[in-house]
Amino acid sequence: MSTLKKLKKASDLATFAKLLGYKPKNLTFIIYKIPSDIKYSTFEINKKNGKKREISAPIDKLRAVQTSLALLLSDCLNEIEGNKDSLSHGFKREYSIVTNANCHRNKKFVLNFDLEDFFGTINFGRVRGFFIKNKHFKLSDEVATVIAQIACYENKLPQGSPCSPVISNLIAHILDIKLVGVAKKFGCFYSRYADDITLSTNLNEFPLRIARKNENFDYELHPKFENIINYCGFKVNKEKTRLQYRGQRQTVTGLVVNKKVNIRKEYYSKARSITHTYLKTGSYSLPSSISPFDVQDENDEITFNRPEKLSGILSHIHLIKNKNDLRCESLKRNEPSQFRKMYKDFLFYKYFGVNDKPLIICEGITDDIYLRAALKKLHKNYPELVEKVDGKYSNKIKFLKFSRTVREVLEINGGTGDIKNLIADYEKVIRRIRSWNPELPVIILTDNDSGGTPVFSCVNDIINPRKKPTSGKKKSKERESNNPFPEIKSNDDFYYIYYNLYLVKTPHIGQKHETYIESFFDEDVKKIKLGNKSFSLDDDIVNKNKHLFYGKRIFAEQVIANNYKTINFNGFIPLLDRITKVIDDYNSRRKKNVRNDTSKQCVGVETPIVDTVAEV
Questions:
Q1: What φ, ψ does residue 186 adopt, rounded to 5°?
Q2: In this structure, which of 59, 260, 553, 579 has its CB flanked by the most CB atoms within 10 Å?
Q3: Is the per-residue pLDDT at 241 higher than 60?
Q4: How far apart are alpha carbons 379 and 371 in whole angstroms?
Q5: Side-chain half-sphere of 49: how many Cα atoms within 13 Å?
Q6: Nearest residue to 538 via CA among 524, 525, 555
Q7: What DSSP character marks residue 359?
Q8: Among candidate residues 203, 175, 198, 210, the one with its CA nearest the CA of residue 187
Q9: Which residues contact 582 (CB under 8 A, 6 or more apart)?
């Protein structure tokens, strides 16, 4: 049954709560028992025009409910729209400011105008009435009321709520239908991104029935066109109506659209300059405006030494630049653009140089699920790795997420080949980052089996450089005497590579030297069946016999994560001990180098942790 049909069948709070994944009593408590004055915290942020925007952020419990509601309604909206191109590009899956701007690329005229107080014009009664009367929903009065109570604050949709965007898109859909009808009638293209509406055309003159010049020679919407907007319950912000000609720079949602969708030149130049400064000095300055490069007053700047603000700016540029680069991904990697090189250095510094917790890089996405579960169960044994506060677990280490950006730009996908390349390139990248002085270690965690040979070989070449072979018989003898992989058979707690980089292998189990992370579970855990399916570590077997076996991802998520309270994680103790020893070792190395900053040696590396800053 589709999500929309399930929602329409919900007749009361109890059945609706189950759709959100809540027990009725828990949902009732959050909606009705928590006092209204503590459900939200309100603050202001600066807008680029100097005015203030009020943000109402819900408390965690309410935010979780609103997030579930947003996901539910997003599924419903996708069902309603089907395969048709959406007129609204804001806050929607597969849509963005890029898809919105692309609708108006290479046009003679581009008209932009904004809706005033977009969320604020959608009040409690309007939300409730929509879900009762709309032909796609027609929900019961009780369910529609509950939705409005979850979504609204002080009789309006608050900015800061996860469900405000999707509800506003649903309610504004009738506006989109009416305005696109007028746009097509007069030969224009239409799109909306939240409260930002754009119409464009290749006609020789922009249609006067949509917009025209007033007595001040500014463009304004035709009264009849504006009346449609007012009739749909919205209001035009007349200060932001502008018509852009082909001969001038045309922008849509902040992107240039004259020939192709692109970043504004000054925005890009400023971002490059700031990134260079950050990698050189470890800090950077941005205007306090919500739009970073629109305010030119240098006295209105804030200095940052954390990467998050700059990360958002560079991620935005990467999104646009990457879409404009039509080459295949292998060419982008082998012949990266200047921006991609800079962005890779920035991400390297962000993840490995200024991480706020010790970072663990696992071979696959299931390993960190196992470790998180083990830390929950063994939290009392490892206060330096995890703590429990108010019933919630907070890890003092973090795991590298193999996000799309990490996979594409840092080229790390979790396999041993990628990890080997990371180790080999680590020093090369660091020497381009003058502000490098990490306070915390980066720990590569691998299985101790033949699959890790590329990693072990690379680490061994760094820790124990092999002599250059001579010719003839001596050459072959040297190869025989100089074991290329001496570390594979060892069972050391960890291997310090260089800088802040370490390797930790899964420990031996008795006489068993080749181990992998699943080795530390009791056999009865690995024999747990899900329905009629048994667990298998062999991906080929799982793929060929999906009706008989399930793989590591399902094992991690549905067996381990869901049942961690009843599982014996004592087998993970030697591995967790190794992680704590790495953290202690790096702390002692830093203290040693701070005391003796003239030192030129650290164990296993020619360049010491602190002195790398001076030498780079």
A1: -110, 20
A2: 579
A3: yes
A4: 11
A5: 5
A6: 555
A7: E
A8: 203
A9: 358, 441, 443, 493, 494, 502, 504
Burial class (CB in 10 A: 0-12, 13-18, 19+), 205: exposed
Helices (H), 159-307: 164-171, 173-185, 223-231, 265-281
Q: Could you tell me the two tokens for 292?
A: 């970073």
Place of tokens 């699959």: 451
C-alpha–C-alpha distance, residues 146 and 13, integer Å: 7
Closest CA to 612 of 426, 416, 395: 426
Nearest CA-CA partner of 490 in 417, 578, 423, 382: 578
pLDDT in tens, 559-605: 999 999 999 999 999 999 999 999 999 999 998 876 554 333 333 33
The two beta strands, 52-58 and 359-361, are unpaired
Other Cβ atoms less than 10 A from the Cβ of 566: the count is 8
Span 542-559, pLDDT tens digits: 999 999 999 999 999 999
First to last CA, the chain: 61
What sign does the dihedral 202-208-214-219 (CA atoms) show? negative
> Could you read off the pLDDT of 167-199 as tens digits, one per residue?
999 999 999 999 999 999 999 999 999 999 999
Would you say 258 and 110 are in contact if contact means Cβ atoms under 8 Å apart?
A: no
Q: Is 60 exceeded by the pLDDT of residue 613?
A: no
Secondary structure E strands in 452-571: 495-498, 501-505, 534-535, 549-550
Residue 54 pLDDT class (50, 70, 90 cuts): confident
